[in-house]
Amino acid sequence: MILPIVAYGDPVLKKKAKEISEEYPKLEELLENMFETMYAAHGVGLAAPQIGLAIRIFLVDTEPFAEDEELSKEEREQLKGFKKVFINATILEETGDEWAFTEGCLSIPDIREDVFRNETVKINYYDENFVEHTETYSGLAARVIQHEYDHIEGILFTDKLSSLKKRLIKGKLANISKGKVNADYRMRFPMAKKAR
């Protein structure tokens, strides 16, 4: 089932998400719905807060990046078929040089800005079967993981921008929270109901 994506301005996007247990109700169904929602919106990652749940789950599928001719063959191979579920994740370390890449977010449509992130990330998490993993990722895979991880920490990519950039997009962000944006996927707007 395709779920509406929560728009910028909803308090759930600023909450630090809670861990879940293996007994979390209908977990398999939730993950299927999250993947379906992400694909319908043409995203490469989706975190539970983006569908209104303040729980520590996010998923990624970087397959769309595998088609990017600007990336090296090695990078494209790494991104091909990189589809994972991260439950109760904790980033253990971020290393390597910071590098800029233009990021967007399904909760913040029509805004794309350069964000600086570390090259490599080491993360501990549980998969969809509640098997524990500690793994290290680099490049775009690391970036997608860092972006989605920020969501379960209550951080948006716009929080990482300079104060000047934040001022420049303030009006756009206000419009998104009021529902004044054209997204080609279902969204839930925090202010749209109050404005009526």
UniProtKB/TrEMBL annotation:
- In its keyword annotation, does this UniProt entry include Hydrolase? yes
Known cofactor(s): Fe(2+)
Give the positions the UniProt entry annotates as the active site: 148
What Enzyme Commission number does this protein have?
3.5.1.88
Recite the UniProt keywords alphabetically: Hydrolase, Iron, Metal-binding, Protein biosynthesis
Cofactor mode of binding and number, as noted: Binds 1 Fe(2+) ion.
Q: Which Pfam families match?
A: Pep_deformylase
Q: Name one GO molecular function term.
A: peptide deformylase activity
Q: Where on this chain does Fe cation bind? A: 105, 147, 151
Q: Which chemical reaction does it catalyze? A: N-terminal N-formyl-L-methionyl-[peptide] + H2O = N-terminal L-methionyl-[peptide] + formate
Q: Does the keyword tRNA-binding apply?
A: no
Q: Which family does it belong to?
A: Belongs to the polypeptide deformylase family.
**Role of this protein:** Removes the formyl group from the N-terminal Met of newly synthesized proteins. Requires at least a dipeptide for an efficient rate of reaction. N-terminal L-methionine is a prerequisite for activity but the enzyme has broad specificity at other positions.
Q: What is this protein called?
A: Peptide deformylase
- The record lists the organism as Aquimarina gracilis
Classification of source organism: Bacteria, Pseudomonadati, Bacteroidota, Flavobacteriia, Flavobacteriales
